[in-house]
């Protein structure tokens, strides 16, 4: 799977040049087999380091390597996936606060969706519909 479209890459790069803002996440990545959700708001000029909210056991704001996400190999030849239906809808500060309160990005998304805060009601990933 292509982790970033050209449009997403352009938006992330633009956000990376304007770091003093509370950006809305542009893209969501997830591990289809377990822990691991990343909401990216920015990409550095070199295109290698992303910034946003990462949750691999506990949600934290920070940076990670796009290449490392690409290199993760999971069972059945799969890798980290991009949520094709994700829309950020809220600034990263709202996502971070809700994720800290609920304990995870996945639970934050469920809470925001159930409370009517997410406008389009998209699924957060395949686990959401099976849990």
From TrEMBL:
GO-annotated molecular function: endonuclease activity
Pfam families: DUF2958 (PF11171)
Keywords: Endonuclease, Hydrolase, Nuclease
InterPro entries from the UniProt entry: DUF2958
Protein name (Swiss-Prot/TrEMBL): Single-stranded DNA endonuclease
Species name: Paracoccus halophilus
């Amino acid at each position: 799977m292509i982790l970033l479209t050209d449009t997403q890459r352009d938006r992330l790069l633009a956000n990376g040049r304007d770091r003093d803002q509370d950006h809305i996440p542009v893209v969501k990545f997830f591990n289809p087999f377990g822990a691991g959700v990343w909401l990216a708001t920015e990409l550095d000029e070199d295109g290698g380091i992303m910034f946003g909210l990462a949750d691999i056991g506990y949600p934290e704001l920070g940076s990670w390597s796009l290449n490392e996400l690409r290199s993760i190999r999971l069972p059945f030849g799969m890798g980290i996936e991009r949520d094709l239906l994700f829309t950020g809808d809220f600034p990263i500060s709202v996502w971070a606060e809700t994720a800290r309160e609920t304990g995870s990005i996945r639970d934050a998304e469920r809470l925001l969706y159930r409370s009517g805060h997410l406008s389009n009601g998209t699924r957060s990933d395949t686990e959401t519909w099976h849990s």
